[in-house]
């Protein structure tokens, strides 16, 4: 190695040391300069910065993980089969989660959107950070969950897109992924509508009219989640334990794995294994309220991985921002007691609290 190469390598090591030795510099590098946790990996860190070391009680340890059972895997080859409807309505009552295969979204589209996420996060930082303060409040590039307020940061970068209209997306979404994101949203629309129809059937809702549709999917949001490989995965977390605020969330995993669900009313965590071509569906807080607690919104989390970069693509279905939500009238028509109070769904406040 030449003298100049030695000098550059030494300078680089000094730069890394200065960043990692100061909490404010780590925060500035990751959050304000837009490098994200991927940027920390790119400069070759060998140990986890202290901001990312989770309290022991927040870690998902092997003592509370079970692999002997898993959430239902439902074959949706025939959406009109009563068995499919029965499975889709029962899974949210016991698990809050299920996976569907043979759902109709082509494998090529699923693979393409995952490749798009890798491509987006491999863009230069200057390209990605344009969307830290986007001209549209419906576009956001960020890291962790809410780094300004969190005591411990999550090992995740993400890019969030609220779909208002195709015209708005054309104006504000990045050209590097706009086409693919819109294609994926449209490809999943039929699956979303079929699942919601079956779930509503389980609540005695015979028809999804315009008002009900606004409650169930008045607003759509798609996230590109990127989890870089972590130097100390046993100390960190990709996304901490939480429930979604959505009506339902439709999630595409890659083949790395790491999504865990807390089994209802226990302290046992179950891994949701990646299944080629499958979509993971989970119930959110809004639908638990609408179902009067028949369907469960349960805690889940994403662990960090020390060997691979991982991606996932959730689509969140939310009530329209001005919707008043409470137990659906069809749920209460047989005299069932109302367990949830009606409330105004102020989505613009809640969106900032969404982690998945």
Describe what this molecule looks like in 3D:
The protein has about 350 residues and is an alpha+beta fold. It contains 12 helices and 15 strands. An 8-stranded mixed beta sheet has the order 2-3-11-8-13-6-5-4. A 5-stranded mixed beta sheet has the order 1-10-9-12-7, with no helix packed on it.
Descriptive keywords:
356 residues; five-stranded mixed sheet; disordered C terminus; feruloyl-CoA 6-hydroxylase; Jelly Rolls; 15 strands; eight-stranded mixed sheet; globular; alpha+beta; 12 helices; vitamin c
Classified in CATH, the superfamily is: B-lactam Antibiotic, Isopenicillin N Synthase, Chain
By CATH reckoning, the class would read Mainly Beta
Second-tier CATH architecture: Sandwich
The low-confidence runs, each spanning 5 or more residues with pLDDT under 50, are 3-13, 352-356
Number of strands: 15
Order of helices and strands: HHHEEHEHHEEHHHEEEEEEHEEEHEH
Q: What structural class is derived from the secondary structure elements?
A: alpha+beta
């Amino acid at each position: 190695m030449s003298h100049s190469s030695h000098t550059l390598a030494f300078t680089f090591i000094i730069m890394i040391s200065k960043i990692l030795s100061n909490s404010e510099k780590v925060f500035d590098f990751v959050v304000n300069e837009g490098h994200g946790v991927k940027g920390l990996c790119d400069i070759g860190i060998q140990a986890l910065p202290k901001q990312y070391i989770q309290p022991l009680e927040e870690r998902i340890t092997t003592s509370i993980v079970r692999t002997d059972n898993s959430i239902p895997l439902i074959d949706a080859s025939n959406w009109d089969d009563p068995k499919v409807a029965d499975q889709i309505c029962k899974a949210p009552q016991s698990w809050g989660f299920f996976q569907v295969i043979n759902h109709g979204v082509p494998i090529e589209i699923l693979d393409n959107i995952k490749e798009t996420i890798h491509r987006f996060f491999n863009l230069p930082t200057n390209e990605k950070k344009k969307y830290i303060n986007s001209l549209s409040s419906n576009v956001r590039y960020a890291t962790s969950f809410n780094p300004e307020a969190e005591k411990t940061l999550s090992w995740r970068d993400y890019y969030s897109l609220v779909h208002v209209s195709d015209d708005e997306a054309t104006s504000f979404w990045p050209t590097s992924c706009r086409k693919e994101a819109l294609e994926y949203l449209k490809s999943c629309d039929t699956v979303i509508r079929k699942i919601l129809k079956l779930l509503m059937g389980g609540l005695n809702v015979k028809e999804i009219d315009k008002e009900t549709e606004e409650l169930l999917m008045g607003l759509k949001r798609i996230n590109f989640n990127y989890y870089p490989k972590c130097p100390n995965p046993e100390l960190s977390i990709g996304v901490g334990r939480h429930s979604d605020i959505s009506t339902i969330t439709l999630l595409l995993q890659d083949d790395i794995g790491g999504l865990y669900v807390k089994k209802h009313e226990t302290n046992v965590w179950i891994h949701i294994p990646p299944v080629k071509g499958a979509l993971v569906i989970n119930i959110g807080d809004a639908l638990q309220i609408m179902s009067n607690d028949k369907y469960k919104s349960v805690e889940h989390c994403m662990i960090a991985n020390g060997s691979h970069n991982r991606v996932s693509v959730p689509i969140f279905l939310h009530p329209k921002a001005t919707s008043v939500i409470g137990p659906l009238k069809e749920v209460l028509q047989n005299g069932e007691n109302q367990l949830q109070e009606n409330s105004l769904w102020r989505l613009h406040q809640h969106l900032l609290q969404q982690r998945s």
